[in-house]
Amino acid sequence: MRTAVITGGAAGLGADVARRLSEAGYRIGIFDLGAERVAQTASEIDNAVGIEADVTSPEQIAAAFEAFGETPDLLVNNAGIVRFGAMEAQSVQDYIDVVNVNLLGSCFCAREIAPAMMERGSGHIINFTSINGIHPAPGVGLYGPTKAAMANMTQAMAIEWGPKGIRVNAIAPGMIDAGMSKPIFENPKVRAVRGGGVPLRVLGEAADIAEAVLFLDSEGAKYISGHELVVDGGVSTSVMAHLPRE
Ligand SMILES: NC(=O)c1ccc[n+]([C@@H]2O[C@H](COP(=O)([O-])OP(=O)(O)OC[C@H]3O[C@@H](n4cnc5c(N)ncnc54)[C@H](O)[C@@H]3O)[C@@H](O)[C@H]2O)c1
Q1: Residue 80 lies in a domain
Q2: In a mutational test of the pocket of ligand 1, which residue from 19, 32, 154 has the highest number of ligand atoms less than 8 Å from its CB?
Q3: How many angstroms separate the alpha carbon of residue 8 from the centre of ligand 1?
Q4: Which of 4, 64, 138, 148 makes the best surface tag, with the fewest CB within 10 Å?
Q5: Helices marked H in 83-142 — which ranges?
Q6: Rounded CA separation 77/71 (Å)
Q7: 201 lies in a domain?
Q8: For a substitution probing ligand 1, which of 134, 180, 182, 194 has the most ligand atoms within 8 Å of its CB?
Q9: How do residues 201-242 score in pLDDT, each as one tens digit?
Q10: What is the pTM of this model?
Q11: The domain spanning residue 14 has which CATH number?
C-alpha cells in the first residue's frame, strides 16, 4: 500500500487530495492545525490518520512523522496561507507568517523526511505553489513571492535529492473554486468575470488538483522531476488574449 502525508489536509484542496489518494488505495496521514478538525476529517477518509501539527514547528513536524509511524512514499506540502491587503499596508507579522507557513513550513517538512526517503532510495515530494508565483497578483502581499521561492526550492531539492531516488515536483493551481479562494467566487460578478477570463471558460475544481497529484505520483510520471505543473485552464498563459484588438 502506498502512503502519503498531506500537510494542511484537514480542509480545502488538501482534504480533497487526501480523499482522492485514499480512494486510490493509499494510507493517508493528515498534518494540520486543530486536533478536533484534523480528527474529524481523518475519520471521514478510509485509511487516514489525523495528526495535529504546525508546519512552522520543526519539533511538531518530527513528532508528527514519528506518530505516522513510517516514511511516506509521498509528501504533499499543501499547507499554505494568504494575507490580503496592499503590500505597504500589511503588517510585519503578516509578512513573517506567510513566509513561515508557505516557504519555511514546506522546507521544514521536506528536510525532516528526505533523509529517510534517501536511505530507502525512493520518495516523492509535491510542493503546492500557485500561478501567483509565476504572474504576481496585486493585494496578496508576500503570497506570490513565497510561491515563486517554493518553485525554485522544488528545483533545488530535485537536483540535490534526485540522485538518491527522490522526485520533487510542484503543482501550481490557478483559480480554483475551493479552499481559500471559495469566498472570492461566492460573489457572482467576480465569479463570472474571472471564470470568463479563463481560456476554458470555467473555474477549476478541487478534484482537478487532486487528479494532478495522483498523476504526478503515478508510475507513468516516474521520469518527471523538478517540474511545476500548472493546473489553471490556461489562464496564466492568456495575457495576449486579454489585450484590446481592433
Ligand atoms: N484554492 C485556490 O484557489 C488555490 C490556488 C493556488 C494555490 N493554492 C494553494 O493550495 C494550497 C491549499 O490551499 P486551500 O485553498 O486548500 O487553502 P485552505 O485555507 O482551504 O486550506 C489550507 C489548510 O492549511 C492549513 N494550515 C495553515 N497553516 C498551517 C500550519 N502552520 N500548519 C499546518 N497546517 C496549516 C489550514 O489549517 C488549512 O486546513 C495552499 O498552499 C494554497 O496556497 C490554492
Answers
A1: yes
A2: 32
A3: 6
A4: 138
A5: 92-98, 106-120
A6: 15
A7: no
A8: 180
A9: 999 999 999 999 999 999 999 999 999 999 999 999 999 999
A10: 0.98
A11: 3.40.50.720
